[in-house]
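Reopening: structure tokens for the S-adenosylmethionine complex, inputs below.
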Amino acid sequence: MYHNILKHAARFFTGMLLGLTLLLPATSPLNAQESVNPDINRHYQDPDFERWQSTFERPGREVYDRRHAIVDALELEPGIRIADVGAGTGLFTRLFAKQVGDTGKVYAVDIAENFVENVLRTSREQGLNHVEGVVNDQKSTRLPEQSVDWVFLSDTYHHFEYPGDMLASIHRALRPGGKLAIIDFRKQPGRSSSWVMSHVRANKDQVIDEVTDAGFELERDLPLLEENYFLIFQRR
Ligand SMILES: C[S@@+](CC[C@H](N)C(=O)[O-])C[C@H]1O[C@@H](n2cnc3c(N)ncnc32)[C@H](O)[C@@H]1O
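Re-run output (same inputs, fresh job):
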């Protein structure tokens, strides 16, 4: 009798495990069929460039205050090709363009056409003619395969509605051995603001897991920022 009970219990737990295994890929953000956060980009439907420039490029915003240290930490060589995905108002695009010089190339990639047009305008005004604009969609960077050495995301990963599709597209766009830099808000109960806690989907460890699962290896975790983490991955 004990033997039968044990047999049934073993079958029950095996069934449960199998069910959970089948369920996991469907619920992981990397395989999500639905947007993981359908509302997160509502402000960027038809954004007012000047308004957002005074939000993104203002003293007091950590990535703005530390922008030169951030660019220096990447050690970008002249002549390389880098994509600023989620370029916004071009805070980093223009700095990268100065760094890589006109033998290099910077792609300003954003879902908001108005941002891309104005990033191109402000870049041209500074003589930065090697900036190219790309209006993408939520599931693709729309960059050609193996077209870039670096992809940079500042305050953008948590805006990805389909992180799995975007990471796959970034992986395809990078040359083998290419690098992916991610700066995003730390999400730590008791430390982060209530706005960050509700606005940002995943914490640093979850992001590392998602990016690693998408074919990248964590290379550096730079201790440069306080409100944000700053990670560098290499394309496997
Ligand atoms: C908070 S802003 C950050 C802008 C800029 N990187 C910065 O740090 O100043 C996020 C940007 O990501 C863009 N965005 C959201 N989802 C995106 C996606 N899947 N691909 C490219 N850009 C995206 C938004 O339009 C917005 O410009």
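The pocket of S-adenosylmethionine is lined by residues 41, 44, 56, 63, 85-88, 91, 109-112, 115, 136, 138, 154-156, 159-160, 166 (CB under 6 Å). The longest helix spans residues 2-27. Marking as resolved unless the reporter disagrees.
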